[in-house]
Amino acid sequence: MAASKIDLSVIIPIYNEEMNLVPMNNRIIAALSPLGIHYEIVYVNDGSKDNSLPIITGLSEENASVKYIDFSRNFGHQIAISAGLEHAMGERIVIMDGDGQDPPELIPDLLKKSLEGFEVVYAKRKKRKGESFLKKLTAKLFYRFLANITQIEIPLDTGDFRLIHRKVQKVLLNMPEQHKYLRGQIAWIGFNSTFVEYDREERMGGNTKFTYGKMMRFATDGISGFSNWPLKVATMLGFAVSGIAFMLIIYSLYQKFFGFTEVGWTSLHISVLFLGGVQLLGIGILGEYLGRVSENVKNRPTYIVKNSNIQTLNES
Ligand code: UDP
Ligand code: MG
Q1: From the CB of 13, is ligand 1 less than 6 Å away?
Q2: What is the average pLDDT across 159-176?
Q3: Average pLDDT of the residues of the chain
Q4: Ligand in nearest proximity to the CA of 207
């Protein structure tokens, strides 16, 4: 493959960020211009319902370094980043949010570390401003829980804000899973990694696009993609409950032959409910994994592009 002429691609997923796009774009350009490198900014419009798209196309008309991919509908943050990754041309690639929470001013530091020979440089948040206590708490607990049940080391207190080398991008593109959990996938890929610390700012404008429902789904993708622990728990619960049931059977038989059998409604009731609950839990866990297998077997495209100014996307 010919050496790419672009040194750095910046990928930004966008869902209803009309208030933030122009200031964000200006901040990125201000951060990158002094470096004297060739860069591109790739906006992936993930089915925004506000004016984000016309703002992005406007920016791309003013500046040839601004590329965009416009989805046919909302496919989700991880898929939007993945689409950007698929079409980024840079030798190195920065992934960041479009709401100003990931400061573009940090990119030169990420780049500097990368040039020292690290294929992955992630931005580690020291503080998180403007996010609810519950969000911070659930995030903290979740990442520590995930770290405990998976073999791979997913760095704590990081989002997707990071710089990766083209080598890592190439491997990612060969991981066709439908449910993306990029921070896990990148950790799984390996290579040399390091981090740069920063204080996470508040969103510049608008509200978070991540509802608790979306966060739950994302967390389940993280767990099911990188751990079989819940399946093992189901098995262990099965064993434990069978053990208890076995003792209860002996107890019941003893009562039948040597004791009284009149009473027992309460224990019967409790054991039926308990067994029912454990069985449903086991089936539910199986279902989570099976559902993902089924989607991977269907192998549908993970996103559909409506429009783009990237040449390779418009050829077919
Ligand atoms: N985003 C997206 N698709 C979605 C939800 C979010 O492309 O379905 C984008 C959003 O525009 C932002 C980034 O992903 O650039 C992170 O979203 P957000 O700031 O709402 O998440 P939070 O920082 O609150 O976790
Ligand atoms: Mg945000």
Answers
A1: yes
A2: 94
A3: 88
A4: 1
Average pLDDT over residues 277-297: 79
Q: What is d(CA 15, CA 181) in angstroms, rounded to the nearest whole number?
A: 18
CA of 208 to the centre of ligand 2 (A): 6
Q: Locate the DSSP E strands across the chain.
A: 8-14, 39-45, 66-71, 92-95, 120-128, 158-165, 193-200, 305-308
Are 4 and 78 in contact by the 8 Å Cβ rule? The answer is: no
Q: What is the pLDDT of residue 280?
A: 75
Query: Ligand 1 in contact with 102 (CB < 6 A)?
Result: no
**Average pLDDT over every residue of 50-68:** 96
- Secondary structure E strands in 26-139: 39-45, 66-71, 92-95, 120-128
- Distance of CA 47 from the midpoint of ligand 1 (Å): 12
The token pair that represents 21 in the structure block: 């796009």
Beta bridge partners of 11: 42, 95
**Over pLDDT 70: what percentage of the chain?**
97
Buried-exposed string 33-54: b where 16+ CB fall within 10 A, e elsewhere: eeeeeebbbbbbbbbbeeebbe
Instruction: Round to whole Å and give the CA distance between 294 and 303.
Output: 17
Closest ligand 1 atom to the C-alpha of 17?
11
The tokens for 41 are 């900014």
What pLDDT is attached to residue 314? 75
pLDDT top residue among 271 and 98: 98
